[in-house]
Specification:
Helix content: 10-25%
Radius of gyration: 24 Å
Shape: elongated
Strand order of the largest sheet: 1-2-11-3-4-9-10
Number of strands: 11
Structural class: alpha+beta
Order of helices and strands: HHEEEEEEEEEEE
Distance between the termini: 52 Å
Number of helices: 2
Strand content: 25-35%
Largest sheet: 7 strands, antiparallel
């Protein structure tokens, strides 16, 4: 029983020391190092965002939290159907939108259905019908055409259209 008591004291002491370590210079250097790594990782590589608005319903919900993987498009451009994070105004306003057309393609909506280069595109992520009509428009070089998944919203309430590839800051993790 005496050895069990010492082991308990040792375990208790170890837990306490783990939770409340002594403030040694070595400990402070480790804390500073972890803080700098967290700042770099969450500020420049895997940026947290709060989703505001319902333009991407039902894929992403208003008030949800996600992370933007900023390295996602460092080696290749986005593809059709990818969800991308777009720097809208400054560094603080970021929109999530879906890529529906690539550079050089013609995009249009007829009676709510998406057409790229005159061919109807299947969009299984769109759950709510719409009646949008937009005449054909050609996507410029180094741009993509983006739109939200919630097509039941009136066209006037949507931020959609061409965006420069330079404005795409990454893609959501999930």
């Amino acid at each position: 029983t005496e050895s069990t008591g010492r082991e308990t004291m040792t375990a208790h002491h170890m837990i306490r020391r783990f939770l409340f370590p002594p403030m040694t210079p070595r400990f402070l250097v480790r804390v500073a190092f972890v803080a700098i790594l967290a700042y770099l990782f969450f500020g420049h590589v895997c940026m947290p965002i709060r989703i505001q608005g319902s333009s991407m319903e039902p894929t992403y919900h208003d008030g949800g939290i996600n992370f933007i993987w900023r390295l996602r498009y460092s080696g290749s451009p986005p593809r059709r159907h990818d969800v991308v994070a777009i720097r809208f105004a400054g560094k603080s306003v970021i929109l999530l939108k879906r890529v529906v057309a690539l550079e050089g393609e013609s995009v249009e909506f007829r009676q709510g259905r998406l057409f790229v280069d005159g061919k109807g595109i299947d969009e299984p992520y769109v759950r709510y019908p719409c009646d949008w009509n937009l005449p054909p428009r050609r996507v410029e070089q180094k741009h993509v055409y983006v739109v939200g998944d919630n097509r039941a919203m009136p066209l006037e309430n949507h931020a959609l259209g061409q965006t420069s590839l330079r404005r795409i800051v990454g893609g959501p993790l999930w």
